[in-house]
Amino acid sequence: MSLKREGAFNSVVAFKDILKQAASMQEAAVAVVCAEDREVLRAVEMACESELANFILIGDEKKINDLIAAHYPSLPETGRVVTRQAENSHDAARKGVQAVSGGEASVLMKGHIDTASLLKAVLNKEAGLRTGSVLSHVALFEVPAIERSIIVTDAAMNVSPDLQQKVQILKNAVTVAHRIGLDNPKVAPLAAVEVINPAMQSTLDAAALTSMNNRGQIQGCKVDGPLALDNAVSMDAAAHKKVGGEVAGQADILLVPSIEAGNILYKSLMYFGNSQVGAVIAGAKAPIVLTSRADSALSKLNSLALAICSTN
Predict the structure, then answer these.
(1) Distance of alpha carbon 131 from its chain centroid, rounded?
(2) Which residues of 159-185 are buried (b: 16+ CB within 10 A; e: fewer)?
(3) Nearest-10 crossing angle of helices 115-122, 89-101
(4) From which residue to which does any coiled coil extend (predicted)?
(5) How confident is the model at residue 156 (pLDDT cuts 50, 70, 90)?
(6) In what order do the strands lie in the sheet with 29-33?
(7) Is the pLDDT of residue 25 over 90?
(8) What is the pLDDT of residue 127?
(9) DSSP-based three-state secondary structure for 289
(10) Which of 42, 88, 85, 22 is nearest to 287 (CA)?
(11) What are the C-alpha distances in Å from 267 to residues 84, 136, 152, 296?
């Protein structure tokens, strides 16, 4: 099942539709690493109520079961969860990755474990989920101010990506976009200005990505940049500044120049923009849900749905 947009610009890929799409994928299973976390278990409960997936809850079984008994007593009745003992966080990460690589689960989810420990297991050369591609963070926002959804990448993984890394980050985001029905997403490589300035590496990289797209080296999307944020998302701003092209004012994907820019944009959309968000790590053998402990259960649920949709 794929969510097809009927319009080029005003249509919205909404999380309610992504949740429906995820629920239609009957074989989805999620391995949760260090599941002894109340907010994570709340997201699992919400996912089970929505019939999104089955879950393997890996970690301290006693703590997991105690939390379920105290806060989510109906969860076992869904028949969608099993628990698995792990001796420590490293063992839990290893078992979670093993469940995915062995085909028992199709999505890996972070629980009460630090990101570095989980990624160490993911990137293990012998038993991990490496593909040779760059791993990158792909976040989908429902933005009330512009009445549509937009993808931001990379706000969490790659600190200062070079051109080749940006190519892979872009391709990862386009793959996710395709999975949720954006067949030919419009990509804006962001910078502070719309002109190419040799003193600003972000503008050089944006121009190179645009040229690579025009020459068929990057496919499945339309890339045009550099674009400043206003001219990437606002038709009025683009028209006022006389910025033309197929992407100006109607970008589906915002490719940020650095992790600082991505992190600030991500949190601005959440805290100032009142946006819903779901995010996934793409580029591994399976999608990874790598949410922050500060993220709400709803954000975790949205991320689960986005990850499940990204498996097809």
Answers:
(1) 17
(2) eebeeebbbbbbbbbbebbbbbbbeeb
(3) 40
(4) none
(5) very high
(6) 81-85, 54-59, 29-33, 107-110, 288-289, 276-282, 136-143, 148-153, 253-255, 186-189, 222-223
(7) no
(8) 86
(9) strand
(10) 22
(11) 34, 17, 11, 13
For the domain that residue 267 is a member of, what is the CATH number? 3.40.718.10
Residues 272, 300 within the same domain: no
* Co-location of 207 and 89 in the same domain: no
pLDDT in tens, 40-64: 999 999 999 989 999 999 999 999 9
Whether the pLDDT of residue 272 is over 50: the answer is yes
Residue with tokens 């760059």: 134
Cα(122)–Cα(101) distance, integer angstroms: 10
With residue 119 as reference, give the H or E element that holds it.
helix 115-122
Question: What percent of the chain is modeled with pLDDT above 70?
Answer: 96
**DSSP letter for each residue of 85-108:** E-SSHHHHHHHHHHHHHTTS-SEE
CB 41 within 8 A of CB 16: no
Please say if the pLDDT value at position 1 is more than 70: no
pLDDT tens for 190-214 read 999 999 999 999 999 999 999 999 9
- Report the pLDDT value the prediction gives residue 8, as an integer from 0 to 100: 39
Owning domain of residue 257: 136-279
